[in-house]
Amino acid sequence: FQMLRDLREALDKNQLDLHYQPQLDLKTGKVIGAEALLRWFKPDNSKEGGSYISPADFIPVAEQSGLIVPIGEWVLAQACEAAAEWNRNGHDIRIAINVSGAQFYQSDIVSYVRDVLNKTGLNPKMLELEVTESVFMDDIQHTIHTLQELHGLGVELAIDDFGTGYSSLSYLRQFPIDRLKIDQSFIRNALNNPDDAAIAKTIVRLGHSLNLKVIAEGVETREHEAFLIAEDCDEVQGFRYSRPIPLVKFKSFITSYD
Ligand code: G
Ligand code: G
Ligand code: MN
Ligand code: NA
């Protein structure tokens, strides 16, 4: 409960921050997107003045308490505002945002997304919402309806951590999905574990046969990259290109990359 109190205070006091990790087109080498990743710098009395808490630790608390709704709205507003500015400056860079299942049930996410797009002037095609396969396990009818409404706004949809969940392949037909994100666990050992390589390859083939784009996460080395080029993967994200970085750094990253 202490965590929840602190998190509520962090939201009030503007202690949450977004970092941005570049996504590149493998054919052109251009930056075509960025994933927004939440960061919480929690002040304390230490020499460093505080420490970062991972979203993996505080998102579950936010979901259980309902605090995920205002946090998610804050993330969406910040990230869309940032992307609208990149686009105005001539950078065709899409913003990808993580949305957890709880946000589908606890809020009117469709109205909120519509409002943010109107306010920021961001082209809906430049916004991508990442959901994990776990959202398909909940109320299917509600999920299909919400995803269809979001897609109706022109927003793109990606399945995050693809290959690690329990969803049925038939969902790929039923849901208006645009992109699969190959989970980083398959990329990490793709060069020395034939099973992981086979899974990564199969996800690329599956995506392409269904007319979906495929992006690989966790690309750390030149060898990972060469493997993904050989397998005709479309896009990449990972430490090989950049870690998630603060907004100001991301702006200079894309300027220097042109
Ligand atoms: O950036 P990092 O590896 O610490 O992220 C850990 C987890 O937190 C990832 O699964 C990521 O999807 C999730 N996460 C990061 N930012 C957000 C966010 O803004 N909203 C939600 N719902 N999850 C996020
Ligand atoms: O679950 P999701 O895919 O949203 O989580 C993204 C997380 O993966 C981020 O927290 C980010 O810091 C982390 N990440 C991004 N690129 C790499 C990478 O190349 N290697 C590793 N180990 N982690 C990465
Ligand atoms: Mn993600
Ligand atoms: Na992921």
TrEMBL record:
- Which keywords belong to this entry? Membrane, Transmembrane, Transmembrane helix
Looking at the record, the residues that make up the EAL domain are 1-258
- Supply the name of the protein: Diguanylate cyclase domain protein
